[in-house]
Amino acid sequence: MSEQPLTSTSVYRRQVPETDFKKWATAARLELQTYIRQLPDVPSKRGPLEDISKKLSLLEYAMVGSKSESTAREEFVSWLEEYDTGGWARFADERARLETARKQEKEEKDRRSTIAGAPAEAIKLTKKYGAGAGVKVGTVIAVLVHAKTGKLWSGTSGEYTTSEKHPLMKTILTGVVQVEDWPVAACGEVAAMNAYLHDSGTTDLSQLPSGTLFFHAQTWNAKDGKWQARAACKNCDQWLKKIGAGRV
Ligand SMILES: [Zn+2]
Question: What is the pLDDT of residues 224-242, one digit of tens each?
Fold first, then answer.
């Protein structure tokens, strides 16, 4: 960039967009008004922001008439340079805060919907075994989801015992005490985790993404003749906790 007069690089000039000023002005004024309503009703708090809001309002009105967007923008920037008493910086902070909050909310929503892929996939798999546990499938179908990538791995109870066992799966299960009626290695979660370890190329436990792996299990209810979501298995809970995984 070549040298420019000081005013051309003022914070106002940099932050007020050069194009679509009319649209921007309306959006900014609405945000300002919402922000002002949240502030204590005292002139020192609201005054500097109300002044900006009023100026925008006047310019919006003028742009409906004959004033061009570029002239209105120039007038607004010059007005801020001359009359702003700190309201602009507070508004900029508030906008940044809102933007961060919106981003976080979206990320959280995306994460929740990604994690929901595990129960959806498990239920889909149960449809393959409508007749329930038997020769082809054990009493549990477990699905593991990676909360960031949405990738899925599945396993059924008993599957691990006949699978190629990843060395780290043995490490993970070391020290896990059998507290249920079934052996620790029998669970569908173990088979799903074993599949994940092979597929992800994990070579060390420290590479496991803590807080990112979530399991969902469906179990065959022989009495009612249907698959249903299964809550905790106290065998698996021990190693899930160890690797920072959760249930969904
Ligand atoms: Zn289990």
Answer: 999 999 878 999 999 999 9
